[in-house]
């Protein structure tokens, strides 16, 4: 159905993430080595590139030139299907979407759109995910 375009991790919160080709996703935790892992409801962030259509023209260059702030960048899944309560399979892993966006919107860089349209959730099945892997709704 869809495709993993990039995988991104950081050892600290609040900084741009580094892209990797493959990652181990840990059930009930998140991405191995990522600062957002833990026992909470935002273990993983997913950004569908289709959401870029919601970025105002005056913000587009800023959003596109900002570094990655999401764990997974995906394409090919309609936004309305990436709703709260859905489970997304990325490679071998599965993530249950618990939130769309954040409570507080960011106004600059890539966080502008990720804070509004990113999907956040818990890992319900661990496994390996590689760039180019298929993304499916369960």
Summarize the structure.
By secondary structure, the protein is mainly β. It has helices spanning 57-65, 111-117; strands spanning 2-9, 18-20, 22-26, 30-31, 44-48, 72-75, 87-90, 93-100, 119-125, 127-130, 134-137.
Which descriptors apply to this entry?
about 140 residues; mainly beta; M1 Pyruvate Kinase, Domain 3; 7-stranded mixed barrel; 3-stranded antiparallel sheet; 2 helices; 11 strands; globular; molybdenum ion binding
Please, could you describe this protein's structure?
This is MOSC domain-containing protein. GO terms for molecular function: catalytic activity; molybdenum ion binding; pyridoxal phosphate binding. With 138 residues, this protein is mainly β. The chain has a single domain, classed as M1 Pyruvate Kinase, Domain 3. The chain has a seven-stranded mixed β-barrel with strand order 1-6-5-9-8-7-11. It has a three-stranded antiparallel sheet with strand order 4-3-10, with no helix packed on it. The chain is globular. The model has no long low-confidence stretch (mean pLDDT 96).
């Amino acid at each position: 159905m869809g495709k993993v375009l990039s995988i991104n991790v950081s050892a600290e919160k609040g900084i741009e993430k580094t892209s990797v080709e493959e990652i181990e996703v840990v059930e009930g935790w998140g991405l191995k080595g990522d600062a957002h892992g833990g026992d909470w409801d935002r273990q993983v962030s997913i950004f569908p590139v289709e959401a870029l259509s919601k970025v105002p023209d005056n913000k587009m260059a800023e959003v596109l030139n900002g570094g990655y702030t999401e764990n997974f960048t995906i394409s090919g899944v309609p936004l309305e299907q990436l709703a709260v309560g859905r489970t997304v399979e990325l490679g071998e892993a599965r993530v249950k979407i618990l939130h769309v966006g954040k409570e507080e919107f960011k106004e600059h860089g890539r966080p502008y759109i990720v804070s509004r349209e990113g999907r956040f959730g818990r890992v319900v099945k661990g496994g390996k995910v590689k760039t180019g892997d298929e993304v499916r709704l369960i």
